[in-house]
């Protein structure tokens, strides 16, 4: 599991939730569902070339996983998360994501682009759901060409990112009226999510390399 949970409390809480979930959901992967929004920040150079320089993420975790974290980080056991508890939760929860480069896959032709670490993570907990908001910068501004492709997914598909068709992906920046998002390839998750959850992931080995099949490949065209 890529996101960090303190092991002592996690065992008892997960056992309880496992007993409450329907059997087919308890054993199915992915274990974590995230409603995600992605904002691409674009800049236009004086020569007219457009560049991607950073990404902004809003990740809202499913209620089950959020409640696991609540029980794990509610140190004073008041069923609330104080600011220091939220800060610790945000930092530690993201440690696993950091190791996996925040599930961010960017290619420019045959070149893989690795984003830098998130300098700050804002964590909020509302309606029994944890939300993490943070930005990632690129090592250097990336020129947007026909070879650019962006995908958000977990290789092993323990974590599934659900992105709304309307407003899930957004472009931000100055003077980008000529820019638009388009879909290079469409993942299977919209049509096959139930089948995937119930049948495709019955053991750890089945997950290997499956995440990309359920993710959309996104391109950006300017001009």
Entry summary:
The protein is α+β, with helices and mostly antiparallel strands and 223 residues long. The chain has helices at 7-20, 23-26, 63-73, 83-99, 189-200; strands spanning 32-44, 50-61, 104-108, 111-113, 121-126, 129-143, 148-152, 159-162, 169-172, 179-185, 217-222. The termini are far apart.
User: What is the gyration radius calculated from CA atoms?
Assistant: 18 Å
Note the main sheet. Answer: 6 strands, mixed
Shape summary: elongated
What structural class do the secondary elements suggest? Answer: alpha+beta
Tally of individual domains: 1
Number of strand segments:
11
Instruction: Give the fraction of residues assigned to helices.
Output: 25-40%
Structure description:
- By secondary structure, the chain is an alpha+beta fold.
- The chain has one domain (7-222).
- 26% of the residues lie in helices and 36% in strands.
- It has five helices and eleven strands, in the order H-H-E-E-H-H-E-E-E-E-E-E-E-E-H-E.
- It has helices spanning 7-20, 23-26, 63-73, 83-99, 189-200; strands spanning 32-44, 50-61, 104-108, 111-113, 121-126, 129-143, 148-152, 159-162, 169-172, 179-185, 217-222.
- The strands form three sheets. Strands 1, 2, 5, 6, 8 and 9 form a six-stranded mixed beta sheet that branches. Strands 4-3-7 form a three-stranded antiparallel beta sheet, with no helix packed on it.
- The longest helix has 17 residues, at 83-99.
- The protein is elongated and about 55 Å long.
């Amino acid at each position: 599991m890529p996101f960090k949970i303190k092991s002592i409390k996690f065992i008892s809480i997960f056992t309880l939730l496992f007993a409450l979930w329907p059997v087919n959901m308890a054993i199915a992967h992915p274990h974590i569902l995230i409603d995600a929004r992605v904002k691409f920040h674009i800049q236009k150079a004086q020569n007219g070339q457009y560049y991607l320089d950073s990404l902004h993420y809003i990740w809202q975790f499913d209620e089950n996983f959020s409640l696991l974290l609540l029980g794990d980080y509610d140190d004073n056991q008041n069923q609330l998360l104080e600011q220091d508890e939220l800060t610790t939760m945000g930092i530690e929860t993201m440690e696993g994501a950091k190791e996996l480069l925040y599930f961010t896959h960017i290619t420019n032709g045959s070149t893989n682009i690795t984003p830098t670490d998130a300098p700050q993570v804002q964590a909020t907990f509302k309606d029994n759901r944890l939300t993490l908001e943070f930005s990632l910068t690129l090592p250097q501004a990336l020129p947007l060409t026909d070879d650019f492709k962006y995908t958000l997914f977990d290789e092993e598909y323990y974590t599934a990112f659900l992105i709304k068709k309307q407003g899930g992906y957004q472009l931000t920046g100055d003077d980008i009226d000529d820019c638009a998002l388009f879909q290079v390839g469409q993942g299977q998750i919209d049509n096959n999510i139930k089948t995937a959850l119930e049948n495709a992931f019955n053991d750890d080995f089945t997950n290997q390399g499956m995440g990309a099949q359920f993710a959309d490949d996104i391109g950006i065209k300017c001009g």
